[in-house]
C-alpha cells in the first residue's frame, strides 16, 4: 500500500510587511488551522508590522518597484504614477477593499480567527531589538518572543514543515 | 456516484462522503455521520448546522469568518464543537458540499 505522509505541522515565517506578504502568511496559516494542522506563525523584520497593534491594520502595498501592479482594466501601473502623494494609500485601500469582498478579514481579525483555532503567533527577538519594539507594542495574541534557536525547537517534529513567505 | 446508508436511508455522496443532494438530509442522518467522526451532536451543533445549511441553500460561500457572524456561536466554540477540521466536518454532517473557500 502506498505510504502517505500528511502535513502535520506548519511553521510559517513572515519577514516582509506589505499587504501581500502578510496576507500570504495569514491565509496559509489560517488554512492550515482549518485543516486541523498544528500551526506556528513567526514574524520577523518588516513582517513584525503585522503583529504591532498600531500598524497591523494599516499595511500598505508597494506602488513603486512593483512590476506586477496593474491599474483597473489591466494596464501596467507606470512607476512614475506611484510617486504621486496618496497613491500608495489609495492603492492599498483598494486592495483591502477587494479582499474584504471575498470575506478576507483585516489583519487583527484574521489573527483572532487563527488563534481561536489554536494557531500560535510568535515574534522574532532580534528584529524586536533592532526596531526597538517592546512587548507592549505587540498584539495580545503573540505568545512569545523567540530566538532563532527557539523557533527551530518549536518547529521540530515529524511531518513538520517550515515555509518562508 | 457513491451511495451510503444512514439511519435506514440511502443517500448520494461523493467520493469524500459529502452529500451531493442536500435535500436527502435529516437530523437522524446527521447524528450518524457525526458518530462516524466521533462527535456527539448537541443543540449547539444543530444550531450551527442549521446556519450552514441555510447559507448554502442561499448560494452563499461558507468561510470560517462567517461563523463569527452567525449569531449562534463564535469561531473558538466552533473549533471546540468540531475538533480538527471544523468547517469540513460540520459541512459533512450538515449534508452540504465541502466548502470551496480558502478562508
Describe this structure in words.
The complex is a heterodimer of chains A (165) and B (103). Chain A has 165 residues and is an alpha/beta fold. Chain A folds into two domains: 1-57 and 110-165, 3-Layer(aba) Sandwich (Hypothetical Protein Ychn, Chain: A); 60-105, no CATH class. Helices cover 36% and strands 16% of the residues of chain A. Chain A is built from six helices and five strands. Chain A has helices at 19-34, 79-82, 87-101, 107-116, 125-130, 148-155, and strands at residues 9-14, 38-43, 120-124, 142-146, 160-164. In chain A, strand 3, helix 5 and strand 4 form a beta-alpha-beta unit. The radius of gyration of chain A is 17 Å and the shape is globular. Chain A starts with 8 loop residues before the first strand and ends with a strand. With 103 residues, chain B is mainly alpha-helical. Chain B has one domain (2-93). Helices cover 44% and strands 10% of the residues of chain B. Chain B contains five helices and two strands; from the N terminus they run ββααααα. Chain B has helices at 27-36, 43-57, 64-68, 75-81, 86-93; strands at residues 2-6, 9-13. Chain B has a two-stranded antiparallel sheet. In chain B, strand 1 (2-6) and strand 2 (9-13) form a beta hairpin. The N and C termini of chain B lie far apart (28 Å). The model of chain B has no long low-confidence stretch (mean pLDDT 94). Chains A and B meet through helix 1 and helix 4 of A and helix 3, helix 4 and helix 5 of B.
